[in-house]
């Protein structure tokens, strides 16, 4: 199945896993609409690199937060204005982690985590369901910690967990249109998202729990996302755990 000429909207699409996914999909001839929240210079540089390497596709970038429902609505409106043939794939990478015991979590932290991991994901899936072309695909990134029995991650695990159920419900509701809806749950990933939120000794411990004594790499996960858009299109309502045995 060729994906050439189709279009993907990717949140957090200019760095880390989002950037790796963008490159992989560009190689399939997929046009890209990439959301980013900050660092305009880096996003523009990434767009230029993609456009040079893959001159046969159209790449657009768009700066916005996705903290509110109407920001998600505008995201899809702008994307459709840039790509009049419509959108085929929607991939959401947005997330935030706080690691601390329940008794230390503040209301402010809870609210911020709710917006980053739960609310934004729900309204992204809602807008994708409304706006994607038939026979498309929606993929949301969650976490392999959903399969872990640990302390200190209550609000991260707890506020990522609903995304599985939004996706299951959406997969049922969108079957008649041929749209698959899945989640991907990576292990601890070798990006600044993890390195900046965990003490060094924790990062070293995570390495010992996976195949090859290493962290999950973005290059481990991006092909799984592509698989769900292409050869694995028959899969829907599922969470793909990919952690090298971490969980």
Topology:
Layout: E1 7-11, H1 16-26, E2 31-36, H2 40-53, E3 59-63, H3 69-82, E4 87-92, H4 107-131, E5 132-141, H5 154-173, E6 180-186, H6 192-195, H7 200-208, H8 218-229, E7 239-242
Parallel strand pairs: 1-2, 1-4, 2-3, 4-5, 5-6, 6-7
Helix pairs in contact: 1-8, 3-4, 4-5
Written account of the structure:
The chain is an alpha/beta fold. It has a single domain (7-187, 221-242), classed as Rossmann fold, CATH 3.40.50. The protein has 8 helices and 7 strands. It has helices at residues 16-26, 40-53, 69-82, 107-131, 154-173, 192-195, 200-208, 218-229; strands at 7-11, 31-36, 59-63, 87-92, 132-141, 180-186, 239-242. α1 (16-26) links the parallel β1 and β2. α1 (16-26) packs across α8 (218-229) and α4 (107-131) packs parallel to α5.
Key traits:
247 residues, alpha/beta, Rossmann fold, 7-stranded parallel beta sheet
Main sheet specs: 7 strands, parallel
Give the tally of β-strands: 7
Order of helices and strands: EHEHEHEHEHEHHHE
Helix content: 40-55%
The structure class reads alpha/beta
Give the name of the CATH superfamily.
NAD(P)-binding Rossmann-like Domain
CATH architecture: 3-Layer(aba) Sandwich
Query: Outline, from the CA principal axes?
Result: globular
Put simply, the count of helices is: 8
What is the radius of gyration computed over CA atoms, rounded to a whole number of angstroms? 17 Å
Cα(first) to Cα(last) distance is 32 Å
Q: Residue ranges: pLDDT <50 for 5 or more in a row?
A: none
Q: What's the structural domain tally?
A: 1
- What number is the mean pLDDT? 96
Looking at the structure, the CATH topology is Rossmann fold
- Top-tier CATH class: Alpha Beta
Widest sheet, order of strands: 3-2-1-4-5-6-7
The fraction of residues in strands falls at: 15-25%
GO molecular function: oxidoreductase activity, acting on CH-OH group of donors
Pfam families: adh_short_C2
InterPro entries: NAD(P)-bd_dom_sf, SDR_fam
Family: Belongs to the short-chain dehydrogenases/reductases (SDR) family.
